[in-house]
Amino acid sequence: MDIRTTHVPGFKIGTAEDREGLTGVTVFLAPEDGAAAGLDVRGCAPGTRETDLLSPEKTVQKIHAVVLSGGSAFGLEADSGVMRYLAEQGIGFPVGDSAVPIVCGAVLFDLSIGDPHAFPDLEMGIKAASAAGTDFPVGCYGAGTGASVGKLTGFEHAMKSGAGYAEIILADGLAVGAYMAVNACGEIYDQDKILAGALADDDRTIISSHRLMLEGYERNMGGNTSIGCIITNADLTKTECRMVSTMAHDGLARSIRPVHTSMDGDTLFTMASGEVKTTIDTVGYLAEEAVRLAVLDAAASAEGMGGRPAYRDIIK
């Protein structure tokens, strides 16, 4: 198990998973008084919850958690578990004797691997939220448990992927972290090197999805979506959080190809605690680079599971 640590003040990350059914949940908890948040959806097949309220003109200015889940639309049930956990801690907007937490979420499609009837539920959401801290696993844990990539030539040629994390901290205290659950139709690449993608019949040789697309390959395998969350201690408005998410999508384009296809629902959230004054361009660029590095981390830390090999199985 590969463990990562977040040093972004005030935020906690927790995971829960079904490693037999191959699905899971990752939860990002904001400081108790909440965080400004925004998102940008670039893929054409998203599955989301409570994202309309992140529009700048909507009343709610802060949220309390973001949930990333496997299980396709079924996985949105886990968000209710996170809501219940936070409400029991008294976190949320006060309504009489109770509190109503604002929890936003997105899902990826992992029903092609493991048990197609296994998906995150309310109890898994509670478990992930209660496990949240500064240390958390990456690879085939949390929302990355059932993630896979390289599906242009069919799922039978895909490689196992997972979740990854990267962060950048400047001398002035600005911290930007990015967590990505990478479940792409395309391949993961680092400059000229392909880390994970569509495999040949030998299940060891990676076929370039980039080259296939340039040759006019017409098949587009469904059942994808890469989802992620950027956390920062920058002082940002809802509008600026959305701008950061927009800029950060370039990190996906610099590490996944093709990306944002008609069968991907690529979605990036940004949560900001508001502690450090800085420029939006600085945060956006750091987020872009952190997202790129988190995608590479997802490939490097994944394990072969569900009959599909991973990067570490092929690159010795």
Automatic annotation (TrEMBL):
Q: Name one GO molecular function term.
A: aminopeptidase activity
Q: Which InterPro entries match?
A: ArgJ-like_dom_sf (IPR016117), Peptidase_S58_DmpA (IPR005321)
Pfam families, alphabetized: Peptidase_S58
Taxonomically, the superkingdom here is Bacteria
Q: Which family does it belong to?
A: Belongs to the peptidase S58 family.
The protein in question is named Peptidase
- Please name the source species: Dialister hominis
